[in-house]
Write the structure tokens for this entry.
Amino acid sequence: GGDHTITYPILQAVAERHGPVGLVHVDAHADTGDTALGEKIYHGSPFRRCVEEGLLDCARVVQIGLRGSSYDPDPCKYSREQGFRVVPAEDCWGQSLVLLMGEVRQQMGNKPVYISFDIDGLDPAFAPGTGTPEVAGLTPAQALEIVRGCRGLNIVGCDLVEVAPMFDVSGNTALLGANLLFEMLCVLPGVK
């Protein structure tokens, strides 16, 4: 639960202990905006604030599933300028993400990694219970491939954000979110 703003203070605490970390970020949006309604801290800006504070090892950041609406004509420009690997949703359509995650594991190496999963990275056909649904997203199977593909990484924390159960009378979004969190717990170091 919570919006993506919560990742910013979490990464401040994580970086205080581990230094700049790698990031596996699944989302429909890059969340690297600068301001909204005059505010610099909001759910569309956490990763820009993290870059500005040196909380991320930018060469070890991957953003998967990006797509959808934006106020910026090139919403991924800032991410690419920082050295993030950007994997748009259309590069994921109709295929397994096992090979991608093999590349991501190599990119992350054995240094600390944080996983941040916004439920709107998934197609709203599967997870409509979110505040900013965007069509043509990832499938639940691809989400599992991403999370399970993080096994073996030096994961120092993770989150799942933007679940809004009141927007999904079926309860499927909450169920999917709970299962993804369970899967994240299963890939933490030392879990058998």
In short: The radius of gyration is 15 Å. The mean pLDDT is 96. The chain has one domain: 4-187.
